[in-house]
C-alpha cells in the first residue's frame, strides 16, 4: 500500500502493486509508488478524452484564468513539494535546487497563462474571407525525465491545457512522488479528467506512445528513448515534440579574462549537478589562456558543500540514481586511463548515496568517451585548441545540437562564432539560461519542435483554415 495514488478523472486511485522510490542521498526508501496497469492507462485516457469534449470549448480567457490559478496553487504548496523533490531527486533545497525549481514551475505556469492564440485573418476581400485558427489537438501524453521533474512537467502540462487539450502525464520512475502530489494539486484547479497522472515502469511510456486515443506526445528524455517514442507513435501518426539529450560545447576565445569567466562556466556546467539537458558538457579552451583558465576553473569548482539536500548548508546533492552514477564514474575512470589530468574533484566518498564532487578533467580530446558521450553529471572535460575553426568543427561534430556557447570579451566577435554553432540556442558569455518567453529546442538528434513562448504553445494546436467564398 502507498499514500500515493494515480490521479484519474479527479480521483486518487490506489493500486495493488507498488515500487519503492529511493532517496539518492542515503539509498533509503522515501515511499512506495503506485504501478499503473494497462487498464489504469485506458481509464486515464478515457477520462481525458471525455473531458476534452467540454474543456476544448471553454473560452480562451477562462482557460487562461485557470492556468493563472495553477501557478498560484503551485506557489502556495512550494515548500511541501520542494522537500519531497529533494528527498526523491537529491537536489538541495537551497541554491539552484528544489526551491528554485518550484519558483520556476510557478513562474512558467503564470507566464504561459498570459499567452494568446489569436485568430489570423489571411484574406478578407470581395472574393473570400480566409481565417486561420489554432485548435487543440486532443489528449496529450506527457512523458517526463528525472532531472527537473516538476518544472518540466509544468512546461508540458500548462501549455497543453492552456490551448484546450487534456493531459495524461507519466513521471519518470525515479521521481514520481512529487509529480503525483503536484498533479493532485493542479487537478484540483481543473474539471475532472483534464489532467491525469499515471506512474509505473518504462513500459507505461511505451503503452502511451502506442495508444490510439492519445493524439500528441510531448517527450523529454534521452535520444535513444526519443527514437523509440517516434517509432511507436508512427502507427497513429501522433503529433510529437521531442526534447532530447545534448552534449553542448563551450568555446573559450583567446581574449577572455580567466578569473572573470570561470564562475559562470562552472555554473553553466554544473547546474543541477550537471544533470541538465542544456548544461555545458565539453569545454574547448584556446591554448594561450588554457593553463590560467584551468587554474581558475578549479578554484571556482572546489569547496562546494556537498551532502543531503535537506540540510540547507549543502549546495550540491548526489547524482540522482545508481545507473547515472555508475555511468559518470565509468567516464571519469576511462578519462584518467587515457591520460586525462584531474584538476579538482574525483575523490568519490565511500559511503551510502551517489555523491561525486564537481570534477574537472583537462588534457582530454575528441574521440574519448568523456568528450563524445553526454555525461549528465558533475564531470566536465576540458580540451585545448589552437585553431578556432577546429574548435567550431569539433563543437558541431556530434549528432547532438541542443545548446552551445562562446566566451569572449568581444561580444560581437563571439556572436559571429556562436551563429556558426549547430544548435537550438547559442549563448555568449553564459550557458543554459532559458526563459518562458524565449523558444527553446534542439536541432539534429537533440529534438523536434520547441517549447516556451507562442511558438511553444503552437505545438499544442492544429491549424484550421475556414475559407468562406464570397459571391
Ligand atoms: P529516459 O529517456 O531514460 O526516460 C525519459 C522518460 O521516458 C521516463 O519517464 C521513462 O520512463 C520513459 N520511457 C522509457 N522507455 C520508454 C519507451 N520505450 N517509450 C516511452 N517512454 C519511455 O531519460 P532520463 O534518463 O529520464 O532523462 C535524462 C535525459 O533527458 C538526458 O539525455 C537529458 O539530456 C534529457 N533531457 C532533455 C531535455 C530537453 O529539454 N532537451 C530536458 C531534460 C532532460
Care to describe what's here?
The protein has 471 residues and is α/β, with parallel strands linked by helices. The protein has helices at 38-55, 60-76, 78-89, 98-113, 149-162, 176-187, 202-210, 223-233, 258-270, 290-301, 322-337, 369-372, 388-395, 411-418, 453-458; strands spanning 6-8, 11-13, 18-22, 29-34, 120-124, 128-136, 139-143, 166-170, 195-197, 216-220, 239-243, 248-252, 280-286, 341-344, 359-362, 379-385, 403-407, 425-428, 447-448, 461-469. It folds into two domains: 6-244 and 444-469, Aldehyde Dehydrogenase, Chain A, domain 1 (3-Layer(aba) Sandwich); 248-428, Aldehyde Dehydrogenase, Chain A, domain 2 (3-Layer(aba) Sandwich). Helix content is 37%, strand content 21%. The strands form five sheets. The protein has a seven-stranded mixed beta sheet, sandwiched between helices. Strands 9-8-7-10-11-19 form a six-stranded mixed beta sheet, sandwiched between helices. A three-stranded antiparallel beta sheet has the order 5-6-20, with no helix packed on it. Helix 3 packs antiparallel against helix 6 (176-187) and helix 7 packs parallel to helix 8 (223-233). The longest helix is centred in the first third of the chain and has 18 residues, at 38-55. It starts with 5 loop residues before the first strand and ends with a strand. The chain binds nicotinamide-adenine-dinucleotide (NAD). Nicotinamide-adenine-dinucleotide (NAD) binds at residues 143-147, 170, 172-173, 202, 205-206, 209, 220-222, 225, 228-229, 243-246, 277, 374, 376, 402, 442, 447.
